[in-house]
Each structure stands twice: as C-alpha cells, then as structure tokens.
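Side project, low priority. Logging it here so it doesn't get lost.
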Amino acid sequence: MIEGKRLLVCCETDIPSVNMKSQLLKKREWEDMGTHGKDSFIGNGRNVIMTTPDLHIRLEDLDERIAAASLKIDEVVFMSRHSAASGEASLTVHPIGNFRENRFGGKERTLVQSNPALMTDALRRISRYNDLNNFRVCFEVTHHGPWLDKPTFFIEIGSDERNWGNERAADILSEVIIDMEPNDYDAAVGVAGGHYAPRFTEVALGFGINFGHMVPGYHIEGSSDEDIVRMVGDACAASETDLVYVHRKSLKGPEEKRISELILSAGHELITSSDLEPLSGN
C-alpha cells in the first residue's frame, strides 16, 4: 500500500490547475508513482499530485480511483479555476457539496466533509502571501461537487480567462499548498451573507476560528424552518462542530431572530466575534 496523506488534484483542461501543478513541480522533487487508468500520480512526502483529463467537479468516482491506485489518502485539495460573470480577479478557497440540487456535480442535499483547519489556514496564508493588489482574497460558500468521502476543499484562481493564466497567482497558491498546516482553533459553520462570505472571511483573518461549511443567504431566503434546521445541521455534521456564526448584519431583524432561535433550538451554539481571541498582529 502506497501511503500519502494529502491528494492534490490537477485537471488537465483547467488552466489554473495546470499552472499550480507546474509551480509545484518547480519547487519540489517529485517521484513518479505510476499511471492508473486515466490518471497519473507523483509524490513528494505527504503530498501526492493526481493529474486527470476529467473535469474535477464531475469526479464522482474519485474514491474508487484512489483505491485502484493503492493510495491511502487522508484529505483532498482540488486545484481549480473559479468562474464568475463579474470577472473579478480572486484567490479563493471553499468547501464542497450541495444544500439543494446538484447541477454542478455531487449529490443532492449532501455535503462533503469539510476541512476547516486546513482550509482556513490556506485562506490566511493566501492573504499573507498575496502581492497582487487587484486580486480579492476570500472564502466562497459551500457549492458544487464532486462527491467523495474525504475532507476536501477547492483552492482557486478567478474569475475569467483574463485571470486564470496569471502565473504569479498560481505561484502564490502553490506556496500556500506547500506550507499550509492545520491548527488547533475551534471550527464553526457560517450562516447567511453572500456567496463570497465577506464576514466569515473577515472573522477568519482576524480571529482564532476556523470555518467549515457555509450556508449562504440565498439558501436561507424563503426556506421553511425545517429546511433551515436541515441545512445548518448538515453543515455542522460535515464540519464536526456545533458552533455557528451568523452574519447578522446581512439579515433583517425579525429574520435574524428567527434564524438564531432555530439554530439554538436544534442544539447548536451561536458565537460572535466577541467570543473569539484576536489573532496576533490584529
């Protein structure tokens, strides 16, 4: 059994994915670990790079491919592009899964286990390492596939072809991938706010807390009490926490009260930044 702790997935048709891999190849010596089916593998210590021709959000059989390659993997990081109509330059990380339908891979109403400590450390390192003034650094909320049973997140360059080929952006994220380490801060689920999770990004960069899954306001709006409890409960279970941080200012008063009461009634604990220790230097 070949052992490797962290699988880095590179999609051959994704420009930022290929560029991040290229930067990683420049920074470390990698051992050829063979080809299995469509996929090739190289390793360096705990890191294994899997290169595949298939689109990463559709890799629904990744667990089987890992097993077929006789790999022992503890966590997965997908190197990817981010697409947005705005075209805003961005460096992002986010957990995966679907609170509702699965139009972009994964399973309906099913979340993949998040990796709060590693993902949030990656966000902090992106913020520290980033010297591209026009690139936004942020979380994205939970969205899209694929489905797999390992703790997972995406690390991405966005948001269109003007930015995807930026080699300095790929260089920054490759350094983050090499250096990132989990920490001992508590994990929390984020609830409400926009797709780019501005409040959760701000809190993670300023305080000792890690974010796992994040339920955006567009899933909360118009949802029944039962559906909100389901989504928050699923997010907590897949983030292995009962701590919930609500972006209160994104909600109107009565809705904020309703959401908070539902979260408390379901047995979760609400936290605010006043409950958290500032990070050194903040």
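Brief comment: The chain has a mean pLDDT of 96.
Revisit when time allows.
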